[in-house]
Amino acid sequence: MGQRPKALTPDQSPAHRFGYTLREFRDARRYSLRGLAKEAFMSHSKLQKWEDGTRFPKHRQEVEVVDSLLHADGLLVDLWERIRSDVSAVSTSGHVSVSAPHVSKASIGLASAASQQAASDHEGIFVPARLRDGSVVFVALDRRALLRGGVGLGAAAAFGVATPAAADTGVVESLKRPARSAAAYSGTPVEHLKLARRLLIDNDNLLGPRHAIAAVREHIDAIKDLRREAKGVDRQALMELQTQYAEFASWLYQDLGDFESAEFWLDRAFQWSHTVGDGDLTSYVMARKAQLAGDKRDLVDVVDLAEAAQRMARPRSRLAAVARTYESYGHALRGETTESERAIDDVRTALDRVSSDPTPWGVWLNEQYVEVHRAQGLEVLGRHAEAAEVFTNAITALPEGFHRDRGVYLARAAVAHAGAGSPEQAAAVGLQALTVAKDTGSGRIMRELVCLDRSLVPWQRQPEVSAFRENFDAALAHEA
Q: Following CA atoms 424, 427, 430, 431 in sequence, which dihedral angle do they give, to the nearest 10 degrees?
């Protein structure tokens, strides 16, 4: 089995951003790392270090060769040049530049100006970009570059704005920021921040993740400040809340489609949960790791993580049932129909028993949630018509205010309709999902719609399909 690629967070460093973009193009062109190295007459280890972000290319000629093989039309070369110019600025000015490298409008032509996206010009945006051959790659750019080049509202909304995921606030920034004081709050700071988290969670489903991420990151920093002067029970409560915020940050990045950042924050939450000593919280974070692995379609980790979460959870508890739900999808991804159905049946049987479980985690586990995950499994197992019907029923049953979830279900239903050979219905439902994607910036919706767009190609001359594909195409950045 090959070594798993290193997880990259493009905002962590220029080298990571270059490596992330290189990997996206290599995957899109269906090159193995060794295959590309052979074609480029390079060592495998050198190319791997480029892609892992542990080494930045020294020579333009080497980048040009790789750019040409990957048909990147100068995007990799342009990115390399801009990173090199930033490095030169650092060496001549004597200070570290905070600006992130960007891809110029010469490499990716983007439509009209973006507005009201994020508080910082240095925050990253994951933009779905269509290449000349029709494929779609997800390119990590900085907001300032996109504003300068002009980014279409659809493209910006598609993945929202991703704040730097892996870089904690630096020493310089922490010195600039005044210390927080518990005395500043009318109640306790824990109560204040708990209420803020509750409001952010409620707004997330209506407005999407990009509006909440900056606030969540700010609150995590605030909690760290408050922990400096807190003692005893207060310090413990703040650590628990910090863990909860980290898990929520992971969820927001997951919905943006930025799985690397989502994984980073789940790792932090898992580490901090052990500090708290809350077994239920640790079990929940482990179950969330299984869910994220499912979204990434990781055939190796999803079942193993779900089983680990069940071992950690209290026997016959709600959290054990949550983890078993994610295990079901993992078996479906592996093509294990019997195991997948057995897991879903176990969760159905457990619903009445776990409804009185006092833990606050996984309270959304109900019959509808289980049915949606059953539909996901049916879809990957090739039972498209059944999956489409279950998704449609789930959409009908959704309460008011679950705007983003409705969009996710619509997108998955559209993919299922296409798989079942109903292109007109798939296109109509897909258009509805696209509207929600623009409203919320949900990358999960956009990733489903990328699959839908590809699956509708055989029917592209049909008017309904053509309408969807034109509208979807308008929501993407395009290679110049």
A: -110
Highest mean predicted confidence (pLDDT) among 21-30, 107-116, 165-174, 353-362 = 353-362
Query: What is the pLDDT averaged over residues 370-388?
Result: 95
Residue 83 lies in a domain: yes
If pLDDT is split at 50, 70 and 90, which confidence band does 146 have? very low
Neighbours of 424 (CB within 10 A): 14
The answer to whether position 421 is within a domain reads: no
Q: Which two tokens stand for residue 172?
A: 């310089």
Name the strand (E) or helix (H) holding 139.
strand 136-142
Residue ending a domain, among 41, 70, 99, is: 99
* Total-model pTM: 0.69
Question: By residue range, what is the domain housing residue 80?
Answer: 1-99
Q: Are 393 and 425 in contact (CB under 8 A)?
A: no
Tokens encoding 157:
């909304």
Same structural domain for residues 12 and 95? yes
| C-beta separation of 130 from 479 below 8 A | yes
Alpha helices in 299-419 (DSSP H): 301-312, 318-333, 337-354, 367-380, 384-397, 403-419
Query: Number of folded domains in the chain?
Result: 2
Q: Would you state the structure tokens that stand for residue 356, as one six-digit string? A: 């009185």
Neighbour tally for 474: CB within 10 Å:
14
Q: HSE on the CB side for 316, CA within 13 Å?
A: 4
Any domain includes 454: no
Same domain, 93 and 175: no
Domain boundary among 277, 295, 326: 277
**Quick check: helix, strand or coil at residue 325?**
helix
Query: pLDDT tens-digit profile of 312-328?
Result: 999 999 999 999 999 99
